[in-house]
Each structure stands twice: as structure tokens, then as C-alpha cells.
Design a protein that fits this description.
CATH topology of the largest domain: Dihydrodipicolinate Reductase, domain 2
Number of domains: 2
Shape: globular
CATH class of the largest domain: Alpha Beta
CATH superfamily of the largest domain: Dihydrodipicolinate Reductase, domain 2
CATH architecture of the largest domain: 2-Layer Sandwich
Radius of gyration: 20 Å
Largest sheet: 8 strands, mixed
Order of helices and strands: EHEHEHEHEHEHEHEEEEEEEHH
Strand order of the largest sheet: 8-9-10-7-11-12-13-14
Strand content: 25-35%
Number of helices: 9
Number of strands: 14
């Protein structure tokens, strides 16, 4: 078994890779960014020079053929997640793929089959699962300190009507896949169970056809989750967790600051006696660094990746059900 840092290749010069993931992984204890690929060699060379990456490739296939590269981070547009992740695993590379890892359950099942066939590791890049604020929130809920978990309420939105934006691509764009996946994922994480049925209201942009405003109710065995997401509202994100004797407020639940503390407000039952809330300060951390190191460590130690494909399929099943409900106007059950 190999030792030392895992040598990563970045599959494209996507914005999220350059803004967040590459600088974060370069700070990792177990991760090393060794190469970056683009369909235009000049763009790969420019990014490699900017970030001090040793290798630049003029095609994705060229990077996949390099035996030095052990793992691939895939931040391509959503419709390319599954095909290129499969190619990477077939080339002997482990894969960390941006969320949503596919467009539907059927696609993710193809990915699962490729993982099992090649024996490579593959996971979905929900970096929030590695952030201490989420681990702490789940710990508080499970401790019973604020009673039994009954409800989760979340909002996530931004404004983007640019015609050339990947968010507005009718094949894989839209709010539910891009950001609605977060409240679905985190509510599943906090409840520790799967919703049995969902109902959704989906409004589509009349020109671009993507869902621009989506709201949903997820019915869990232990309670309910409600969320709204939009690609055409003011930028905002929030999440509140309601238990029978208190609540938790996540101030910046999804895009946690990379170099600043994060606050969790734990509001215990006031019973009309005034404010009984406390603020827990989570020290500064970079959730992308933590994600990359957790995945790299899983490679070196042959452990489980942070968000395995089995979890990704369950998340995608809920997304599929919300879309079906938006079309049918009925409650729909997630189908694995």
C-alpha cells in the first residue's frame, strides 16, 4: 500500500475548483494537487502556474492516462459528472465528484456499478459533512439536551439569470439540483433516517426551463423538513433545527467561511422566562480541506469515504421525488 500524500488531479478549471477546492486541498495533510486538466491546454497551464501545480494537461483523457495521478476531483457541469467519473474509475483513479453527483437515481446506480466493478473509491463532495458545525449540531440533537427532533426548516437562494450560466443549463441546471440538495442532505444527516414521502412545488423559468423556485416538505418517521431554494432570489442561506425543548440555529449552514469562526446558536426552552440561548463558537476551519483529507485518508487506509455512493443514491431519490411531485401535484415516495 502506498504512503504519503495522495496525488490528486483536478478535472477541469471550473470556478469552484479554482476558488475553493484547489487552495484548500493544497493545505491538506494527506492531499497533494499534482495535476490539472482542461480541454484547452492554455487554460490548464494558466491555472497550474497560478496555483503552483506541477502538471497541466490539454485533455481530460491525458490526465486519466497519467499513472502518477491517484485520485480525481470532478467539478464538471452536472451532466458530465457520471460519464467522466466512470471514465476516471475505469482508468484506475479514485473519484471525489461534486454534488449533485448525478442527474437522477439511475445515473448514480451506473456510478455505483462502475465503483464495484473497478474497486475504486468514489464519493459525493458534500463538504458540509466534514464541517465541525454539522457534527456538533448532530451531537447536540442526539444528546437529547433539547428534547426530541421534530422539524427542520431551511432556505437557500441566489440570483443568476445569465444565459450562459451553468446554473441555467436545462440539462442539469436549476435550483433543486444545485442548492436544494443541501437542505435535503443535511436534514437526512440530522434526522439520521430517510423521508418516507415528499411533496414539492416547482416553478420553472419560462425561457430557460430550469426550476427557479422550489419548495418541498419531506415527511420523516420522526418529523418533518421544509425548505425553499431558488436561483432567482436574493442571496441567503439559513437552517433551523427544532426539537421539543429547544432549537439550533445554523448561522451560515452551507457556505461556511473558510478562515473565520462559525457560530451555532442553541436556544433552550424559554418557557416565557426570557432568552436562554447560548452561542457555541466553532474555530476557523476549511471544510474543503477537511473533505479532501478525509477522502485521501480513506484511500490510504482503505476506509470509507465521507459521503459514499449509497448515501448519494438516497439523496438523489429524494430529489427525484420532489421533481415528480412538482409535476404530479401529489405526495411522492423516494424510489431507490
Amino acid at each position: 500500500m502506498k504512503s504519503g500524500k495522495v496525488k490528486w488531479g483536478i478535472l477541469s478549471v471550473a470556478s469552484i475548483a479554482k476558488r475553493k477546492v484547489i487552495p484548500a486541498m493544497q493545505q491538506g495533510e494527506y492531499s497533494e494537487v499534482t495535476g490539472i486538466a482542461s480541454r484547452e491546454l492554455g487554460k490548464a497551464q494558466e491555472a497550474a502556474a497560478k496555483f503552483g501545480i506541477p502538471k497541466a494537461y490539454g485533455s481530460y483523457d491525458e490526465m486519466l492516462a497519467d499513472p502518477e495521478i491517484e485520485a480525481i476531483y470532478n467539478p464538471l457541469p452536472n451532466e458530465l459528472h457520471v460519464p467522466w467519473s466512470i471514465k476516471a474509475m475505469e482508468a484506475g483513479k479514485h473519484v471525489l465528484c461534486e454534488k449533485p453527483i448525478g442527474l437522477n437515481v439511475a445515473e448514480v446506480k451506473r456510478l455505483l456499478a462502475a465503483r464495484d466493478r473497478t474497486s475504486m473509491k468514489c464519493g459525493e463532495a458534500f463538504m458540509i459533512r466534514s464541517h465541525p458545525q454539522w457534527l456538533r449540531a448532530r451531537e447536540v440533537v442526539r444528546s437529547g439536551k433539547i428534547g426530541e427532533l421534530r422539524a427542520v426548516m431551511a432556505r437557500f437562494s441566489y440570483f443568476d439569470r445569465a444565459a450562459d450560466s451553468i446554473h441555467n443549463n436545462p440539462n442539469g441546471g436549476g435550483g433543486l439540483l444545485d442548492i436544494g440538495c443541501y437542505p435535503i442532505n443535511t436534514s437526512r444527516f440530522i434526522f439520521g433516517e430517510e423521508p418516507t414521502k415528499v411533496v414539492g412545488l416547482v416553478e420553472r423559468d419560462p425561457e430557460m426551463k430550469i426550476d427557479r423556485l422550489t419548495s418541498a416538505i419531506l415527511a420523516y418517521p420522526s418529523g418533518q423538513a421544509i425548505f425553499t431554494c431558488s436561483t432567482q432570489l436574493v442571496y441567503h442561506q439559513s437552517m433551523e433545527i427544532f426539537c421539543t425543548r429547544g432549537r439550533i440555529v445554523m448561522e451560515v449552514p452551507y457556505s461556511a467561511p473558510l478562515n473565520l469562526p462559525t457560530n451555532i446558536i442553541i436556544d433552550e426552552d424559554r418557557g416565557g422566562k426570557g432568552d436562554a440561548s447560548t452561542t457555541e463558537v466553532i474555530p476557523p476551519c476549511n471544510q474543503y480541506t477537511l473533505q479532501g483529507d478525509a477522502f485521501s485518508k480513506a484511500i490510504r487506509e482503505d476506509g470509507e469515504v465521507p459521503v459514499p455512493l449509497e448515501d448519494a443514491i438516497k439523496n438523489m431519490a429524494v430529489i427525484d421525488a420532489v421533481f415528480r411531485s412538482g409535476a404530479s401535484g401529489q405526495w411522492e415516495a423516494p424510489i431507490l
